[in-house]
């Protein structure tokens, strides 16, 4: 049984090793792109002229919150899913939820969609349609993504990222060349433009978070399977030591029995 388990873990570890480098590279690339997209949306969505003069897209404060939970579809990921499940279990009934990953479980939230990762990859429009309806009809005052964020191989942590409304960057004016006072020339309806731009931004952020979560998943899976193999080897070594001890005990017992038998035969009258 131990050999079968070990072989399964070896296969999982091998697959994780194959995926982990590519996943980390993709996450590193997209982290740079993510910061640029965030800066662009921050500069547009929080522009004072849009907000005050043109009364651009603003969330409805009375609407519920939409939270997108991203989990893992695979085992051997440590506490990857348990942390997401903890937040999912704490969600209030007036929260709308989208659950991505077959290992995420019960919640009191109103689940709009539950989907596995492979199914979503094959048909991304399922999620895009919900986001489009949310922004077009202002159904939600806030849209957030819960996922395990990959920073580097030694830093993976649970993160909740707000993607609507776009949060103001407190470092603006220091690290960025804008201060939300730039003026824009806009043709057409600004709210139509902002809705389309926001829908694209949210869907893009979801994909970026999924790429990042994929890196976290593979790093954790590779680490967990490596640790499992180490423990299996240690257990096999302990079992081998115990078997050797038992064999030595049996051999010693035979020697003692032979010695006792010999002494008995010597003491018999001839």
Automatic annotation (TrEMBL):
Transmembrane segments: none annotated. It comes from the Bacteria. Coiled coil: none annotated. InterPro entries: ATP_synth_F1_ATPase_gsu, ATP_synth_F1_gsu. The keyword Acetylation does not apply. The keyword Iron-sulfur does not apply. Signal peptide: none annotated. Produces ATP from ADP in the presence of a proton gradient across the membrane. The gamma chain is believed to be important in regulating ATPase activity and the flow of protons through the CF(0) complex. Keywords: ATP synthesis, CF(1), Hydrogen ion transport, Ion transport, Membrane, Transport. Belongs to the ATPase gamma chain family. It comes from Bifidobacterium colobi. It is found in: Membrane. It is a peripheral membrane protein. This is F0F1 ATP synthase subunit gamma.
């Amino acid at each position: 049984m131990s050999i079968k388990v070990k072989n399964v873990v070896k296969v999982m570890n091998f697959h994780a090793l194959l995926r982990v480098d590519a996943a980390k590279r993709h996450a590193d690339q997209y982290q740079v792109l993510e910061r640029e997209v965030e800066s662009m949306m921050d500069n547009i969505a929080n522009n004072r002229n849009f907000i005050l003069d043109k009364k651009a897209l603003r969330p409805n404060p009375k609407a519920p919150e939409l939270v997108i939970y991203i989990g893992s579809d695979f085992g051997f990921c440590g506490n990857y899913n348990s942390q997401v499940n903890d937040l999912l279990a704490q969600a209030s009934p007036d929260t709308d939820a989208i659950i991505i990953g077959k290992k995420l479980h019960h919640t009191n939230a109103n689940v709009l969609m539950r989907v596995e990762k492979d199914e979503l990859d094959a048909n991304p429009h399922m999620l895009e349609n919900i986001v489009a309806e949310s922004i077009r009809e202002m159904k939600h005052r806030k849209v957030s993504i819960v996922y395990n964020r990959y920073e580097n191989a030694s830093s993976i942590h649970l993160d909740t990222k707000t993607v609507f409304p776009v949060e103001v960057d407190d470092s603006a004016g220091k690290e960025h060349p804008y201060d939300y006072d730039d003026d824009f020339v806009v043709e057409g309806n600004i709210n139509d433009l902002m809705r389309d731009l926001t829908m694209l931004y949210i869907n893009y952020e979801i994909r970026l978070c999924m790429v990042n979560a994929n890196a976290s998943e593979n790093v954790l899976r590779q680490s967990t399977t490596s640790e499992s193999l180490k423990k299996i080897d240690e257990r096999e070594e302990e079992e081998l030591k115990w078997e050797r001890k038992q064999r030595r005990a049996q051999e010693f017992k035979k020697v003692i029995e032979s010695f006792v038998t010999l002494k008995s035969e010597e003491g018999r009258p001839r």
